Amino acid sequence: MKFERLALIGCGLMGGSFALALKRAALVNQVVGFSPSASTTARALALGVIDAIASSPEQAVQGADLVLLALPVAATEPTLQRIRGSVAPGALLMDVGSTKSDVAAAAARALGDKLPLFVPAHPICGAELSGVDNASADLYAGRQVVLTPLAQTDDAGLQTALQVWTALGCHVHCMTPEAHDAAYAAVSHLPHLIAFALMNSLSGQSQGAAFLSLAGPGFRDSTRIAASEPSMWRDILLANREQVLAQSRQFQASLQALEQLITSGDGEALKQLIESASQTRSAWRISTHTPS
Amino acid sequence: MKFERLALIGCGLMGGSFALALKRAALVNQVVGFSPSASTTARALALGVIDAIASSPEQAVQGADLVLLALPVAATEPTLQRIRGSVAPGALLMDVGSTKSDVAAAAARALGDKLPLFVPAHPICGAELSGVDNASADLYAGRQVVLTPLAQTDDAGLQTALQVWTALGCHVHCMTPEAHDAAYAAVSHLPHLIAFALMNSLSGQSQGAAFLSLAGPGFRDSTRIAASEPSMWRDILLANREQVLAQSRQFQASLQALEQLITSGDGEALKQLIESASQTRSAWRISTHTPS
Predict the structure, then answer these.
(1) Of A130, A253, B131, B160, which has the maximum CB count within 10 A?
(2) ipTM of the predicted structure?
(3) CA distances from A247 to A217, A269, B202 (A)
(4) Which domain holds residue A24?
(5) Is the dihedral of CA B209, B211, B217, B223 positive or negative?
(6) B290 falls within a domain
(7) A291 with B186: Cβ contact below 8 A
(8) Does A139 touch chain B (CB under 8 A)?
């Protein structure tokens, strides 16, 4: 497997890292980049992330056998509409968005006869940095990637997508867009929402700054993801709102169960709930294999 | 400043690390240890954490010019009652508990004429490990330590306490027990409560295990503290219940403000709230100096 040309639409952290990783693995001959920002493509060219600058998404995809959309999720549909007529019939088309039901729906509306080429993808990276200057060939190594093929997706394209991410050192899962969004509402979108709320709760108090100056390593780790990119997280929380709100309600019920035992002073039952949480967390490890 | 004898009452992670750090800094000639568990003191002796085993707290403090209580907070009052008659008049007496109003009240009830010797202390370490086998001379280096002297605390003892922790590489703050408990309810106890609730919310769902297998680095960091020791955290949450519940209410109000904007689809206001959280977190750093 070697690609002649990667069309990189969006040259930020995610897209730039994909291009660098593909180049290091010698899986691509040429990378053509497009970004809505001319300074970003210029920087990507200077850093060797891309080899040529395209003046439009349509131009970027011409002659490309691999297309990666690495834009804010909200830009997916208009971009797919623009490139639809120019994507080569045998190309593999992927995105890297953090929500998938909305991307699947956008693709169904926008791609027409090119829909079978599309394999929605979500690499789980956990970087709160952004921008092409932070791009790294190592970003995806050892990470999980979730592919959410549509009913219309070509099986050959899906197999190629599996091979690409595996070649970059990723552990690849396949599931429906809906199952993806339910799972990531629970293990990613809710934790982000909680971290945002925790920071706002603190900064909203008159002594908030004084309190923050006393915080230690536990606070540092549990709030790291609160520093994530605001526009991206607004889009994710809105795109996956039903699942996120359902998870938030479940979480608040669990929180209130703990509060109730604190209020009543029921030490034995409180210890049991904490023990259950502690054991679940102690037994958990980041998955490093593809489930069968 | 050099101590003739440290009486270490409780030889787990916190106490053991204090003894090792004090020895490495050549600030103590001998460490005598007591623990309710005979296997713990035997292990502490074998590891060189202590030099001799005492058969009781009373015996441990005899002839000691430095006494450190490193026990579960619930054991503070009975232990102080037991050692009250045996502590040398000029000794410095400290604890390492994570709550301070309850410790201050326990000391006031238990210590009688020895109350002026007591300087309650809380080192901020962020270790979810426990036990003497994890003790390390480095545990406290670079960490913050909060001292919460009582109205009755001798000023000379407070100055010595400041010197000890500073000599171990710590950044020392002084405040009242009440101010300490308000601050740590916000930046430590609440984040733990949230992490416990998040784990329980996940494991309580039929698909919880499947969701957990897909979680990534953001989840890993934001839930690390959920693996903390259950008995210790039950005690902390109960000892500081008023402040913890007040912080939890504030947090839920912040969470619900975000939920409301997600429900109504108000992307602009949602982005602003996330931006505020993201900026507060990005600007925050673990304090590495003593505020004036």
Answers:
(1) B160
(2) 0.86
(3) 27, 24, 9
(4) 3-175
(5) negative
(6) no
(7) no
(8) no
